[in-house]
# Entry
Amino acid sequence: MAESVKIAADVVLLTIHDNSLSVLLVTRGKTPFKGQPALPGGFLEHGETVEVAAQREFLEETGLTPDRIRLDQIGVYSDPKRDPRSRVVSVAFSALIPKAIVPSAGGDASDAHWISVAEAMKQDLAFDHHSILQAAVEHARHVLEHSAAAAAFCEAEFTMSELRRVYEIIWDVELDAGNFHRKVAKIPGFVEPVGRSTARDGGRPATLYRADPNRRLSTFLTQPSRETDGAS
# Structure
């Protein structure tokens, strides 16, 4: 007899919160893994695609419609023992959210909260969610290499140091200010000066820029090794 297989969608929501890369975790309200932290997720409902299921989970946990947030599929997880209840294959999605909105636990979750990725990695996450979170973080780091997505975490008009700080947080590196500025300035269509400056950083007046977070870059901004300061 053929084995019965259930399909689930898990969603990794990442943002910058309290000056660190953070992930939205829920506390499971039911068995298995009752009381343990987990990523938002759930089984496909009748007539749903995995994409629709992921969008539903996104809405349940954030209260936001994902029409302006891109959900990227980052992997399929099919270890036969990943769910002690039965055979469950999970399709994992990830999204970068500009602001840490107040979450609302949905489905079988009893709580939802933001936590730094560094702290989340130390916790005993339910199922195989540790592996899924790791994949989502690496995906986010690569997204910043080939798109202007980092601009979504800045004000509409931002300084180069503010943009650099987003890269430092998500890439988990320290970047040389001068080298970063030169590399960004050389990429056609990445940032555009708005013709004004600001001293809100507390130092000398700095040029303000704007950028389209959805724009793909014609030249990659390669992330340096996290074991160096990115100055080379």
Q: What stands out?
A: The chain is about 25% helix and 25% strand.
